[in-house]
């Protein structure tokens, strides 16, 4: 389901509720032809990935402050966010680009979940295999996994930003 954002406070609330899911924000205008054309594809993707992504729509005419915060200069503009970090921003009604970006970042969400689950299982195995292991050893192992996860995400975000600059 696509959620229509009413104002800045509503957007902040939706971003917080998304937690570690991928958030896709569609900045659109009612008078924008390409926005209308891509809307059905966005709705389809929102339903397809509803367990891993949140899709929000922001009307630029009703929410100029939010549009300014994201430097929206054309419509539609799609912003991909995870854990409060902008992963990608692109302008235009290209359904193929929307699908590819959505698939890329949803699979990144899946990879993150798999790493967390794997890390959690490894930590449990460490505790059960070595009852003498202190809880600080387990915490340290989890922290190291979380840090490596963030390093990978930061690297991917930087690569995405560099690719946008090169275009």
TrEMBL record:
CDD domains reported in the protein's UniProt record: TRX_family
A Pfam family this chain is assigned to: Thioredoxin
Oxidoreductase found in the keyword field: no
Keywords for this protein: Disulfide bond
Record field: compositional bias (Basic and acidic residues): 110-123
Stretch list, region Disordered: 110-135
Residue ranges constituting the Thioredoxin domain according to the UniProt record: 1-107
MF annotations from Gene Ontology: protein-disulfide reductase activity
InterPro entries in the cross-refs: Thioredoxin (IPR005746), Thioredoxin-like_sf (IPR036249), Thioredoxin_CS (IPR017937), Thioredoxin_domain (IPR013766)
PANTHER family referenced in this protein's UniProt entry, alphabetically: THIOREDOXIN-LIKE PROTEIN 1
Full protein name: Thioredoxin domain-containing protein
Native source species: Drosophila gunungcola
Lineage, uppermost ranks: Eukaryota, Metazoa, Ecdysozoa, Arthropoda, Hexapoda
């Amino acid at each position: 389901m696509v959620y229509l954002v009413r104002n800045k406070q509503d957007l902040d609330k939706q971003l917080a509720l998304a937690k570690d899911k991928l958030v896709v924000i569609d900045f659109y205008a009612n008078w924008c032809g390409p926005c209308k054309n891509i809307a059905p594809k966005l709705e389809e993707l929102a339903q397809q990935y509803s367990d891993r992504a949140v899709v929000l729509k922001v009307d630029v005419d009703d929410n100029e402050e939010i549009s300014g915060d994201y430097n929206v200069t054309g419509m539609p503009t799609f912003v991909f966010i995870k854990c409060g970090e902008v992963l990608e921003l692109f302008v235009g009604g290209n359904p193929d680009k929307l699908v590819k970006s959505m698939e890329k970042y949803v699979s990144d969400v899946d990879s993150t979940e798999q790493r967390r689950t794997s890390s959690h299982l490894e930590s449990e195995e460490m505790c059960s295999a070595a009852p003498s292991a202190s809880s600080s050893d387990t915490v340290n192992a989890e922290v190291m996994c979380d840090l490596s996860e963030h390093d990978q995400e930061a690297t991917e975000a930087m690569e995405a930003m560099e690719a946008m600059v090169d275009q």
